[in-house]
Amino acid sequence: MRLFIMIALCVVLTGCSAIDMKQYSANQPALDLYSFFQGQTKGWGIVQDRKGRLTRQFTVAITGTVNSDGSLILAENFDWSDGEKSTRTWILDRLDNHRYAGRAEDVVNSASGTLYGNVLNWQYVLNIKVDDTAWKITFDDWMFLVDDKILLNKATMSKLGFTVGEITIVFQKR
């Protein structure tokens, strides 16, 4: 009997965890990832720990260009509230009308994204330096296009299945 209850609980919990992205198909305005990020974009963000406490703030300036092979290159320049400056370069590829792949120097393997309507969900593992080591942190990014110039991003960070923090960013197309 206990085994049956455990199996039933697992089925219920895993069945409720996935979001059907197709439910956003009709949402407007439709997000065209390449159009939004091509050119200049500015972002303002905060990082919160697992208890919701603000730990850092940042701005990010992004220059997006489309290569001849069809890849979208995003050169990101971060200015952190504690004085740190950092960069990341994403290379994004459109796999079909709804799926994207992305890579960057500090991304483990590659990122995968699904886009329907005005919603994009990115999932990836990032190597984050903590003191003298690198932690592999899993990101679950949700981006929501509000209008043709504003994109909201909420990312949940986890390690070994436990939430360790959240990042919220407002992107403005320049």
Write the layout of secondary structure elements.
Blueprint: H1 2-17, H2 33-37, E1 39-49, E2 54-66, E3 72-80, E4 85-94, E5 99-103, E6 107-116, E7 119-130, E8 133-147, E9 150-159, E10 162-173
Antiparallel strand pairs: 1-2, 1-10, 2-3, 3-4, 4-5, 5-6, 6-7, 7-8, 8-9, 9-10
List keywords for this structure.
12% helix; mainly beta; 2 helices; 10 strands; disordered N terminus; ten-stranded antiparallel β-barrel; Lipocalin; 174 residues
Descriptive report:
The protein has 174 residues and is mostly beta strands. The chain has one domain (28-173): Calycin beta-barrel core domain (Lipocalin, Beta Barrel). It is built from 2 helices and 10 strands. The protein has helices at residues 2-17, 33-37; strands at 39-49, 54-66, 72-80, 85-94, 99-103, 107-116, 119-130, 133-147, 150-159, 162-173. Strands 1-2-3-4-5-6-7-8-9-10 form a 10-stranded antiparallel beta barrel. Strand 7 (119-130) and strand 8 form a beta hairpin. The protein is globular and about 40 Å long.
The CATH homologous superfamily corresponds to Calycin beta-barrel core domain
Strand share of the residues? over 45%
Coarse shape: globular
What does the radius of gyration come to?
A: 18 Å
Order of helices and strands: HHEEEEEEEEEE
Oligomer: single chain
Based on the coordinates given, report the CATH architecture.
Beta Barrel
Structural class of the helices, strands and pairings?
A: mainly beta
SS summary, helix count: 2
